[in-house]
Known about the structure:
Mean pLDDT: 87
Strand content: under 5%
Number of domains: 1
Structural class: mainly alpha
Order of helices and strands: HH
Number of helices: 2
Amino acid sequence: MEEKSSIFETLLDKSADYGKSSYELIKLKALDKSSDVISTLFVHSIVFVLIIIFMLFFNLGLAFWIGKLLKNTYYGFLVVGGFYVVITFIIHFLLHNWIKKSACNYIIKRVLK
């Protein structure tokens, strides 16, 4: 009888250790995935900010240049603004679903990798 209780206690201890180990493994995997996603988003946000700064100065230069060609500065800004309105409508009405699906698939791949 004592031998059965000893085996039962050993089995209980091992199953408790297994449960703790499994819990720790799940925590570590979650930490790994979340840190990977956060670090990727951090790097992408830095690149995004740099691209925004570049685009700002590029568009200002382009608007001033077009304005100089058209003999009025605000015409250049109107032309550049109109270009972006057209691009915005194209993206919104034609590419919205494709961009949304691509972004979702990218995030899912990063998490499940």
